[in-house]
Q: What sequence folds into this?
């Protein structure tokens, strides 16, 4: 038995599975979890891979630790999406953090991951974590100058994730952030989503003074070459707290202080796509 993900009829990924252990349609999307032969549990939404137990640490460490080590004192963090809980787990590694809000539109994702992928979702019960089930747009609009770091751990720009790639969304992020705040958004693969990325970075750079792209290598994401958009009006990610990065990296399997700088070294074709030449 194989799970096959189709990349817009351009290519596909096949993963050998033992069995499907969960399937339910929410009002937003089809949520499925498989037990695979090699990658452990596999979470998919509308037939697209979100994470596997074997490689999820790459994505979650990189979306969290780059901005968290670039901010001088991150205390309040908002995560839009990320119902699997992996970004929450990594965020709670910082003693400075007083509050983490997880805003996930689909309650079923959180429930399924709590029940079946506790290695990723286990930190959702921490006292510092508040989980709200709401549209990210509506939730962001309630805040002004409040969060130190905002992470957009979204699905691909289809279905409920479409609006999280538009200018209005980034304007709301800027408003909800403190003046020296930092935000990061997952920004797809340049091999399969070039046009999406061009528009994405154009919208971000129209709102934030500092916009940069960085990358990580995630086996089960399209092409394995995945990107993140870093945005701030104050903090350049090259001026990060190296001492804090060293300490955090002791609990990491991918992120470290050398990689923090190195992940911003991107190839020319990606510089042109993102407009960060």
A:
């Amino acid at each position: 038995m194989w799970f096959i993900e189709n990349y817009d009829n351009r290519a596909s990924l096949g993963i050998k599975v033992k069995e499907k252990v969960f399937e339910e349609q929410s009002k937003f999307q089809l949520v499925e979890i498989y037990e695979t032969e090699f990658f452990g549990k596999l979470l998919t939404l509308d037939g697209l891979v979100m994470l596997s137990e074997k490689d999820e640490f790459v994505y979650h460490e990189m979306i969290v630790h780059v901005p968290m080590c670039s901010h001088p004192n991150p205390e309040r963090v908002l995560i839009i999406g990320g119902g699997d809980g992996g970004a929450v787990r990594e965020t709670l590694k910082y003693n400075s953090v007083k509050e983490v809000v997880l805003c996930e539109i689909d309650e079923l994702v959180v429930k399924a991951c709590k029940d079946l992928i506790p290695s990723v979702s286990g930190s959702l019960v921490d006292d510092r974590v508040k989980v709200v089930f709401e549209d990210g747009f509506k939730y962001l609009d309630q805040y002004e100058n409040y969060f130190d770091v905002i992470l957009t751990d979204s699905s691909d720009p289809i279905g409920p994730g479409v609006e999280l790639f538009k200018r209005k969304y980034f304007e709301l992020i800027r408003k909800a952030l403190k003046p020296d705040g930092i935000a990061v958004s997952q920004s797809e693969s340049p091999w399969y989503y070039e046009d999406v990325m061009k528009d994405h970075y154009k919208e971000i750079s129209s709102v934030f003074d500092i916009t940069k792209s960085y990358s990580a290598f995630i086996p089960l994401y399209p092409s394995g070459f995945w990107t993140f958009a870093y945005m701030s009006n104050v903090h350049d990610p090259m001026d990060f707290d190296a001492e804090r990065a060293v300490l955090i990296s002791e609990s990491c399997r991918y992120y470290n202080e050398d990689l923090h700088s190195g992940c911003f070294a991107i190839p020319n074709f990606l510089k042109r796509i993102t407009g960060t030449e």
Notes: The longest helix spans residues 56-70. The mean pLDDT is 95. The two ends are 45 Å apart (CA to CA). The first strand starts at residue 2 and ends at 7.
